[in-house]
Automatic annotation (TrEMBL):
Domain of life: Eukaryota
GO biological process terms held by the UniProt record: isocitrate metabolic process; lysine biosynthetic process; tricarboxylic acid cycle
Pfam families: Iso_dh
Natural source organism: Starmerella bacillaris
Protein family according to the UniProt entry: Belongs to the isocitrate and isopropylmalate dehydrogenases family.
Protein name: Homoisocitrate dehydrogenase
A cellular component annotation (GO) from this entry: mitochondrion
Keyword Metal-binding assigned: yes
Length: 357
């Protein structure tokens, strides 16, 4: 089977880590039966500076028409508003209806906190609808933003979290040694409905009622818990090993998932996927890292794991597992970039993983 994958390096170290992801996919052994065709697509701040467009229509059309999935590197975003520029990844999520952002965080190194969790973040609404305004009242400026939660988007994200929980239950039955988690999968819905009783209240209510609608077989395998988001942060850092699948509205999910990266050493190892019903985009969690760009120091692991996660969502768990295993072996052997205390280059790490594959 040949998969056509769009490659969108973006800016900065995106140009170093995306070729790394490509190389790993190309190096999968023939027995996996997968072949790849790669197509380059533009997006990002550099592209905006050259052309005035951050996410060209050709990129969207190419992905939609020709590709099964894509890998997105990172884009630089100016901290002050630049006329005409808005983040291409946010636009891409919207255009391709990638309603879920899935971010697994699993400890590998002895220095990591014992963790095996997946944060499933709603990717289309909440405060990120970006409907903001500023006005004047009694001589001072007041700014406001809309926080939108809909039943349909919440149902989608709840069911994504439930599917992942069920799949994790089955895979740990098959391989109990692969994780410290035991027994039923636990989905934790996080919110602040004690204060925001309508918006977060709706999120909580819809996740609960979607859970109740599942079969008794499902209920024998997956349990639902809830945790207010502020104490969630506390618990996650105190005892991350308690958590399994966490489902969250967009903003809380964004904050929780970047925070959770601190449990496992470096932003350079944390991967994610933006998932919809018909498309998936693998994406490292980190940004374009201008401080190390062009120096061969970028950790390619986050992107390589993102490529594996993309394969999982495209229905190829076996080659994905093979990639995770090779990556973990390399980490444990100490073949790591400077962000993890090593002195190997991006290319060294890629070649090491290729040889383990
Ligand atoms: P960043 O993630 O780019 O870098 C934070 C720190 O982590 C830096 O010291 C960097 O060198 C290090 N780092 C990140 N990824 C690494 C890797 N793979 N290997 C080794 N070290 C790594 O975040 P920062 O500095 O806040 O943002 C830089 C630019 O990236 C900004 O323009 C920002 O807007 C953009 N950004 C883009 C994201 C995206 O495209 N999804 C996400 C976050 C930031
Ligand atoms: Mg973030």
């Amino acid at each position: 089977k040949t998969l056509k994958i769009g490659l969108i390096p973006g800016d900065g170290i995106g140009h170093e880590v995306i070729p790394a992801g490509r190389k790993i996919l190309e190096s999968l052994p023939a027995e996996d039966g997968l072949k790849f065709e790669f197509v380059h697509a533009d997006a990002g701040f550099d592209h905006f500076k050259q052309t005035g467009v951050a996410l060209p229509q050709e990129t969207i059309d190419l992905l939609k028409r020709e590709c099964q999935g894509a890998l997105f590197g990172a884009v630089s975003s100016p901290t002050t508003k630049v006329a005409g520029y808005s983040s291409p990844i946010v636009a891409l999520r919207k255009q391709l209806k990638l309603y879920a952002n899935v971010r697994p965080i699993k400890s590998v190194l002895p220095s990591d906190k014992l963790t095996d969790m997946v944060i499933v973040r709603e990717n289309t609404e909440d405060l990120y609808v970006k409907e903001e305004k500023t006005y004047e009242v009694d001589g001072e400026r007041v700014a406001e933003a809309i926080k939108r939660i809909s039943e349909s988007a919440t149902k989608n994200i709840a069911n994504m979290a439930f599917r992942i929980a069920l799949q994790r239950y089955n895979s740990r039955l098959a391989d109990p040694e692969s994780t410290h988690l035991k027994g039923k999968s636990i989905v934790t819905v996080t919110h602040k409905s004690n204060v925001l009783s309508q918006t977060d209240g709706l999120f909580r209510e819809v996740v609960r009622s979607e859970f109740d609608r599942q079969s008794s077989d499902f209920h024998s395998k997956v349990e639902l818990k809830e945790q207010i988001v502020d104490s969630m942060v506390y618990k996650m850092f105190r005892n991350s090993s308690e958590f399994d699948v966490v489902v969250a509205p967009n903003l809380y999910g964004d904050i929780l998932s970047d925070g959770a990266a601190a449990l496992v050493g470096s932003l350079g190892v944390v991967h994610s996927a933006n998932v919809g019903d018909s498309f998936v985009v693998g994406e490292p969690t980190h940004g374009s890292a201008p401080d190390i760009a062009g120096q061969g120091k970028a950790n390619p692991v986050a992107t390589i794991r993102s490529a594996a996660l993309m394969l999982e969502f495209l229905g190829y768990p076996k080659p994905a597992a093979r990639i995770y295993k090779a990556v973990n072996e390399g980490l444990l052997a100490g073949v790591v970039t400077p962000d993890l205390g090593g002195n190997y280059s991006t290319t060294d790490v890629v070649n090491d993983i290729v040889s383990r594959l």
